[in-house]
Amino acid sequence: MRRHLMIKLMALMMGLVLLIVSVVGLLLFTNIALNYNQNFYAQMEDLIGRAEFLHLHEGKAEAFIDFISRQEEVNPLTTDRHYYVLKEGVVVSGNSYGGIMEKTKNLKKVLKGEPSTRAFIFFEPLDFAYNLKTEGYTLYIIDHRTALFASMKDYLMLFLQALLAGAVLTVLLSFLFSKSFLVPIRRLTQSAKEMEQEGIFNQIPATTHDEVGELTRVFNAMGHRITRNLNTLQVLLENIPKPLFAVNEQGTIVQTNEAFKRLFRTPPPKNLFLEEHQEERRFLIQIEDRFFHVYRTPFLMEKGKEGILFLLDDITEAEALENERKQFVANVSHELKTPLTVIKSYSETLQEGDLDEQTAKRFLAVIEKNTDHMNNTVSQLLELSKTESSPAAAKEPLDLSEAILEIAEAMHLEFAKKELQFIPQLPQKRILLCEPDQVRRVIINLLSNSVKYSNAGGKIEVALEEAEGGVLFSVKDEGIGIDQKHIPFLFDKFYRVDKARSRETGGTGLGLSIVRAVAEKMGGWVRVESTLGEGSCFTCYFPDETN
Description:
Elements (H helix, E strand, L loop, with lengths): L1 H52 L7 H9 L11 E7 L2 E5 L10 H7 L14 E6 L5 E7 L2 H52 L13 H29 L4 E4 L5 E4 L1 H6 L18 E6 L2 E11 L5 E9 L1 H37 L4 H33 L6 E4 H11 L1 H6 L3 E5 L5 E4 L1 H17 L6 E9 L2 E8 L21 H7 L5 H11 L3 E7 L3 E9 L4
Parallel strand pairs: 11-13
Antiparallel strand pairs: 1-2, 1-4, 3-4, 5-6, 5-9, 7-8, 8-9, 10-12, 13-14, 14-16, 15-16
Helix pairs in contact: 1-4, 4-5, 7-8, 8-13, 9-11, 11-13
């Protein structure tokens, strides 16, 4: 393209030069021819004037012919002019050998008595005719322009040489001009292509102060502005935490951000976004086990083509929290409904007053037991909520070995009821920087859980072991054990392996949930290993900042 523009500029300048030179040449040659013609007619008039002064045109023809033959204006040795003296249209004398002449239009007019006319440049013969007063005689002179044509030929050769030199100079100057003019344009074009194809802007030096230089400076300013805007837009797109992608008219993904790349290893099917939701601006989809709100916005791409921008809002966690909230409300309602139903029915029976004292006491005991169960449930719910939502309190040093032994001593009666053997495997002293009340709650819940589900006469082993960055606290029993299908849900709120036995022992299904909440809040974890019919082992890891 740039060569085409250079050739056009060179051709334009060459054509302009040729036009100017041609016009000048035409005017020059025309002026030379006109001057030659005017000089010819001036000489002819001067010749006739001298003849008339001598009255030779009125006397005998021989004297006039003799006068004419001796005039320099018609000398065949110095001019290319031939003269003829005609009598009644027949040549009787002249300086042309053979006496043959062509009767021109002008001569014919003069022979008829009309005035002589003048020739115009090259298009008519350059001649002169004059009727003498001597009856029947006519002087006719014709100039063959040999000298004029020779002179014009010389001028033409010089003109052509000058034209050739001018053409070469014009080509050279036009090439240099076009090159100096096109180099900045080439740079502008190259920089624009790089910015379009690769998004890279290279500043172009503005070396002149003319319009091209001004255009270059404006282009540089525009390029910097576009680059800044693109970089800002790119940073915004890359740092949007929600997945974002754009597709073309064929549904092919043409642009994504980092959040989209992290979420999808392979692009999702097109029909999820295009075919099934062509007219919807906002819709809900499921991809594998995740749920998304999708926001759809059309936009214009290159060359006026249409594209679609999709923003994905991952609501999987929100859906899970909502489901968990609904399940939690249902579980709490269920946990409270059962004892409330018992309390209501027993209290209504007591109000009737038809019961003996022993039965009434038994009914009151049932009401008290269910009231205690509700109170225990509410207390543990409050404790769990406080553990999950409250900020971390100030940490204090706690001797785990001493705390475990104190709690075991406090639960002595519960161990004794089932004749359980408590076997501690503890160091003499193990200090842990923590929230003492929270850790004590974990110890109490795990020991109480083992007591509830241990068989009479069994053993409960408690141990502390050092671990990398913390300490492991484990409680192992020889109880009924847990089926493996229950292990993944064991720490969920209100989850019970054996609901009948749990109610019988007064369990709320929140103890292990509290244990997990405390451990995770401290940055630790809790795990369980169990074999059905043989017993379970709960292990809790406490990070230790003192190390």
